Target: Nitrate ABC transporter permease
Amino acid sequence: MSQSLSLRAGLVSILLLLAFIGAWWGATLPTQVDLGDMDPEYAAMMGLDTVQESDIPTPGDIGSAIWTHLSDPFYVEGSNDMGIGYQLAHSLWRVLAGFALAALVAVPLGFLIGMSPLMHKALDPYIQILKPISPLAWMPLALYIIQDASISSIFVIFICSIWPMMVNTAYGVASVRDDWLAVAKTLEVGPIKKAFKVILPAAAPTILTGMRISMGIAWLVIVAAEMLVGGTGIGYFIWNEWNNLDLANVIFAILLIGVVGMILDMIFGLLGKAVSYKEV
Model:
């Protein structure tokens, strides 16, 4: 039953893709221009054409752009002209660095907030004020203080990643069943051992959910951050190609961002399944 459903869903997905490509191809077909009573020879002399090509790239143009970029993804012809592999590597490095720093701060703080009602009440006002601030709002301040575009981008990723991880960790730790903690207390388990042997495994699915949300937000934010700071990265690549009016490359980069984001989400989905458990 499950295999049959997957097969049918796959067929529907393929049909939807073919329908979308067909509609796209139809929308980019050349159109006939009505020149009225103008003599065709005069129109040709004036540079007027009876057939107008679409400015939107065709599916074939996108296929050509994909082949061009993926056939040589790591070329370097100057600081402003690098292959898509280098651009993607720069973006991933910034995302992973900011995400890792956020995890180092958010998970211990989340533990503290989840285990201590006092710290929860004391820190909650600051979290509620800082959490809604757009990560990009921090960018001017980061550029002024850090004075490095790449590190400022990492800082923005750190800021946007920290809140979902911290809140989910605190919730997961606070939601550990009382009877499990009572058993640990009865067995006279020490605080550190209790944190790693009882609380962490119990809260791990919720913590991974927060990390998954944080990674999704970080991948969204890095594109906008790199558009602002320039230099390298997939966001800068899109902005640069827009300035060159190369829409085929812009669409290729958008597709690439979607594919990479899906892979990152799948990785955290698998990690979440690995630490999940069923209560009996």
Notes: The chain has a mean pLDDT of 89. Residues 110 and 169 are 5 Å apart (CA to CA). The first helix runs from residue 2 to 27. The longest strand covers residues 31-32.
